[in-house]
């Protein structure tokens, strides 16, 4: 079952913060985050493997709450280059980490 | 290092025609995937492969076929094209970080229109 993402879309001014949520009615075994700029291929951002894990680079970070079956992506002091669609992905089955399915995406637009 | 290469980049098909989307990777990844992305929508898994000779269905396999005779290549075959198959198709390959987690590298995509 496909994970759910919220919000569907968000518009920010440069310097503002945003949070994108990913959740599932089934267990999340790990969570991937990818960003896709318009007309391009998705690009890997980070992966969280364990409940309680937090990761980040630059001003983009993520957390994973295994018990709540959700993950959040945090974008702080947003830049124009952060614009794009953000997808969370998760293995569809615990025994098939290779079978990655994605949520519907969250469109993020950063304006000057 | 080319990564994941897809051909063609664009193609227009007539209803009922067949074609093969080619995908090759030079990273020696075991895992390969085909996703489709409809306009304004997310990525749907069509088929994936864990190694040469092994393939499995994803979320939306109907109307497609795959084969994996080598580690490098993972072609996607569309038989009897239908307008519902109009989409952008992404091929991806992945390596394992250990603990079973795979990081996907995507190709640039193939835009297919069926008229």
Blueprint (SSEs and pairs):
The complex is a heterodimer of chains A (112) and B (115).
Chain A: E1 4-6, E2 9-13, E3 18-23, E4 31-36, E5 43-48, E6 54-57, E7 60-65, E8 70-75, E9 84-93, E10 96-102, E11 106-111
Parallel strand pairs in A: 2-11
Antiparallel strand pairs in A: 1-3, 3-8, 4-5, 4-9, 6-7, 7-8, 9-10, 9-11
Chain B: E1 4-7, E2 10-13, E3 19-25, E4 31-37, E5 43-51, E6 54-57, E7 64-66, E8 76-78, E9 87-96, E10 102-106, E11 110-114
Parallel strand pairs in B: 2-11
Antiparallel strand pairs in B: 1-3, 3-8, 4-5, 4-9, 5-6, 7-8, 9-10, 9-11
Approximately how much beta-strand content do the residues of chain B carry?
over 45%
The chain-level structural class of chain A is mainly beta
- Beta-strand proportion of chain A: over 45%
Largest interface: A-B, 23 and 28 residues
Sum up the overall morphology of chain B in one term: globular
Helix content of chain B: under 10%
Cα distance spanning the termini of chain A: 37 Å
**Nearest-angstrom radius of gyration of chain A?**
13 Å
Number of helices of chain A: 0
Overall form of chain A: globular
Q: What are the low-pLDDT stretches of chain B, counting only 5+ consecutive residues below 50?
A: none
How far is it from the N-terminal to the C-terminal residue of chain B, by CA? 36 Å
The helix-and-strand class of chain B reads: mainly beta
Instruction: Tell how many strands the DSSP assignment of chain A holds.
Output: 11
Count the beta strands of chain B. Answer: 11
Assembly status: heterodimer
C-alpha-based Rg of chain B, rounded = 14 Å
Number of contiguous helices of chain B: 0
Largest sheet of chain A: 6 strands, mixed
Report the mean per-residue pLDDT of chain A as an integer: 89
